[in-house]
Specification:
The complex is a heterotrimer of chains A (264), B (356) and C (335). With 264 residues, chain A is of the alpha/beta class. Helix content of chain A is 32%, strand content 23%. In chain A, a hairpin with a 2-residue loop joins strand 4 and strand 5. Chain B starts with a helix and ends with a helix. By secondary structure, chain C is an all-alpha fold. Helix content of chain C is 71%, strand content 2%. Chain C is built from 13 helices and two strands. The chains are: A alpha/beta (264), B alpha/beta (356), C mainly alpha (335). Chains B and C meet through helix 1, strand 2, helix 3 and helix 4 of B and helix 2, helix 3, helix 10, helix 12 and helix 13 of C.
Chain lengths: 264, 356, 335
Amino acid sequence: MSETAADRTPVLEARGLVKRYGNVTALDGADFALYPDEILAVIGDNGAGKSTLIKALSGALTPDEGEILLDGKPVKFHGPLDARRAGIETVYQDLALSPALDIAENIFLGRELRRRGPLGSVVRMLDKRRMREDAAQYMRDLKIGIRSMRQPVETLSGGQRQGVAVARSAAFARHVVIMDEPTAALGVRESGMVLDLIRQVRDRGLPVILISHNMPQVFSVADRVHIQRLGRRIAVVEPRSVAMADAVAIMTGAMEGVRVPLAH
Amino acid sequence: MSRGRPTGRRRAFGLAWRWSAVLLAVAMLAPALVGLAQPAAAQDEIIVGLITKTETNPFFVKMKEGAQKAADAAGVKLLTGAGAFDADNAGQTTALENMVTAGAKGILITPGDTKAIVPAIQKARAAGVLVIALDTPTEPMDATDALFATDNFKAGRLIGEYAKVAMGDKAPVIATIDGSTGVSVSVLRHNGFLAGFGPAEAGGATPVATDSQFVPDSRVVCSQDADGDQAKSQTAMENCLQKNGDINLVYTINEPAARGAYTALKAAGKEKDVLIVSIDGGCTGVQAVKDGEIAATAQQYPLKMAELGVDAVVKYAKTGEKPSGYTDTGVNLITDKPMQGIESKDTTFGLANCWG
Amino acid sequence: MDSPSAASAGYGEAHVARGSISAGEVIASIGPLLALLVAGAFFASRSDRFLTGQNLSLVVQQSIVIGVMSIGQTLIILTAGIDLSCGAVMALSQIVMTRLAVVNGVHPVPAILLGMAAAVGFGLLNGVLSTRFGLPPFIVTLGTLNIAFAMTIIYSRQQTITNVPSSMTWLGNTFKVGTTAITYGSVLMFVLYVLMWFVMRETAFGRHVYAVGDNPEAARLSGISTNQLLIFVYSLAGLFYGIAALQSVGRTGVGDPNAGQTDNLASITAVVLGGTSLFGGRGKIMGTLLGVLIVGVFRNGLQLIGVESVYQVLVTGILVILAVVVDQYARRKQA
């Protein structure tokens, strides 16, 4: 992976992002690069600008300075829907699922399929069967074994709901999937299943940005780790080359200016 | 984590299902048990209906009692209904329809909205049901087969005449605490009082029973609509006193209004200087006359209205003969301070014949 | 990398395909129907006049105003809102319609349209105030309730309006099916319920209403414009209140300034009895129809067997509490 890195165009890139809130500078010339076929974890202490960076990339806020490039072309997001339309899907920490609606309805929420012909265009009738079939296919693609798409999401366990949210993003994303603390509310076993899911997403051709506080999980699943500190990217490391303790030290500033092999 | 849940959850679903079905059945049975206390109507039993304005006004409670007594004495079944609030036309219409369906031969009604109820009454009459208005006429009056009511104008006139003599030479400064805006009873009593009190100058015109609005009078310095409600009447009286502190005569549409006015006057220290007159003759009202809070009240007889009504329906059911026109159910002036030349009865009589 | 057994083992075992459509939904839909059937059976057994065509038609006729009004209320409650102004708006609408026609001589059709416009206008106001200004719907509609009520009293000068042109009371006209007289208004109510049942089930708008009531943040992040949707829902409810106003004119034949004073609570009762949750996101339009009919059946049935009408109020109260308890119990057993 790392040997050809210099020739590849990042799928999603940011250069010199700056964002200020009054006197507080959340992003101070931050850079970012996500390459195809990888899981990139973003770690950083509180106040490092991690969530601000992700919000800029997912369109939830507009940076004051700097540029964002998607597939090498500059883009400007005025809202999360812009990013979605550009092919960047986000799995939010609280999942953004509607518990009373069923799995198929949740997957297609806001993007419902209408019946073909006048029933769809004039009467605006939904094609529920097609949505259920497609939803079932998306779940199968990620090897999630829930059989009925008609179940209300509220009857699912935490890990299963996470599965639905991930399947939704994977189904509609064209370029990037962002996952914000996907295992924060889960137990060990279900976390493992979600990490497997993330690998499935990458293997199906969608690079994943993973935000997480959980170092062991990060180190078990990520291909590269972006370390954010004081509003800038201070390091990108490969889990197989760097010890978890060192990565944490860099993140907290305990290890300053130590030359670690940078993977890019 | 997932293993134990299916059976547990499905069992809980089943429980909830059964539990709720049982509870719903119980709720259904509650009115059933109540209904079981009343035997189902025998096939050719005569059914009389009574629809009052509300369930709670003691005037109507007494009316219902009187109707029930008369029904029991005549061996007929009484159905009752009412509106949810004073002018609830939809509620009274529904009760009317249901009583017709239940087979009532005649229905007695105190109409809340005297105009809007007419189409429903006409439908009932077209189905052969006798409809008699009690206490309040419909507009037009002949929309019902008959009317058994107090002559409200006369009731006002009685206390007006009394007040004139009781005031003597004092120049009257009058406040009126009336009922709901535009309601005929309120207009009739108010104008009747003024007619009985007499014109401002000798030879002047007095109101008549056909006047449809309050007739203006220079001696009335404050006139407030308070829905015949005690609390609202107290506020109205307080406001009137603020407007003119010299008020010495207060006409009130009914005794709750009089009580409210008295409370306001007492709080202002004026209860000894002001004469209060009222209408209705409820037991608490007559007691207030006895206690000296109200000088005189005109007593009406809802029990009699109800009895006459039930008897008329029974007669119709048995002989086909219908009552017609207006029957005056009587009114008496009740006071413990009789005035020269004014016919009245004392509170002992009043308490013996009161309602509520 | 590829561990199908590990992944699916955790996910797949917990659920069987069909049987776990939430039983809470089953209770919610079966419960009201069961209550209606039991009540109907009981009254039929106690009075031979209950189950006649004429009487059943009467029960429906007595329910049409609340019935149509409650469609709007259901939509609003599904979005986790509430509308206390529905009765007052309906009253204002029918006063506008009838007064324009009778006193100002306006042709019935524009008079009716203006009355409906007044109702939609209030709905729009409710929607805008509760979204753009972020005020709780309870407070907003409490305010518009009083405004509409006052406007009704002022505009009608407290007078009932009679001699309404017959084209306006048309919904009260009847046609015969066998020996039973059925009003056009009754038919209209059923048609409207079926129409909204379809919309809520089969269109994106319907599903979005549920989503917004269930988890508004999720709806927003899914690209649904929640403010727009809510404003539309409140305005649409206003339209239903306008139709209810026309139903009221058809039934009573007059413009009644005192109409609808207790209708806000009655419509909320019907919605709750029908199994819709006051917290939003769960419930069915047809449940509301059942709720409306349950109240109507009780009122009619109790009157027929001679029970005092105050017991009807008591029973309605018991049923409402039961309906909410069952709803809460079913919900707790699901999550």
